[in-house]
Design brief:
Layout: H1 3-14, H2 19-36, H3 42-61, H4 66-70, H5 74-83, H6 90-112, E1 120-121, H7 122-146, H8 152-176, E2 182-183, H9 187-206, H10 216-229, H11 233-240, H12 242-269
Antiparallel strand pairs: 1-2
Helix pairs in contact: 1-3, 2-3, 2-5, 2-7, 6-9, 6-10, 7-8, 9-10, 10-12
Amino acid sequence: MNAKQIIEQNRKLQKELNEENGKYYTDLVAYTRLKGSLLYKEQQVEEILLVILQDLLDAQRAGIGASDYFGKHPKQVADAMMRELPTAPFLQQIRYVLYVFGIYALFTILPGLVFPDESFDIGALLVSFLITILFVKMIVVEIRQSIYRETGRKGKFVMIGCACLGLASIVVAKILLPALWPVKLEGALGIGVVAVLLALATWFTLRKGNEFFRPFLIVAYASGVLAIVSRIPKYAAFWKSTGGLLVIVVWLAGSLIWFFYRSYRQINRE
């Protein structure tokens, strides 16, 4: 079985766990995936989780609880099992970094292409990406460490603080840094780039397992439509007028409101 098939089987078997064992195993899964996602092959991590789940189900049928079977320190169990795994090849670790970069780029480039007369700064995008990677790493480490400890308000403040500091750093960098690698995407070239980005965003978000990102399509399509229409010579003058700018503001604001609404509904369904 490949990794996706193992995850699907794991999801089905988890339904057989009772409440106490389910909580124990859910925390174990979260910790193992967060720690092992970059260091080890995904399939090897999922195979370990499936073996643990099958052992836990056997123990449950015998009337033994998870904490009695594996001990009261599941973090140590996960660490011990992962230490036996070979680390993932370097290229695979880079692939995950590029995967994150692709997500970041797809959903930040399109809003920046709405106005064709403004240069798009590729250098600023790369700097923002590096800052994002740094602070996301900090947040992931904090989440991983918080799974098996009582975090209370302190842990939440740390995660919120990291997110706010990361966002502030991106804003400050864009204000203070000069244009590092500006490019103009006008006319047919700009329309072609926008069309390709929309196709990639659609392909990515509609893939199985990426349902969480689907609300982002609302903003992507709203920005993409404006970016394409604004590059059609017949309508170019209108988008520079007061009425055109008002339409852009209302259109993007409406898409953001709809995006937050759809995100809220999706999170509550999950």
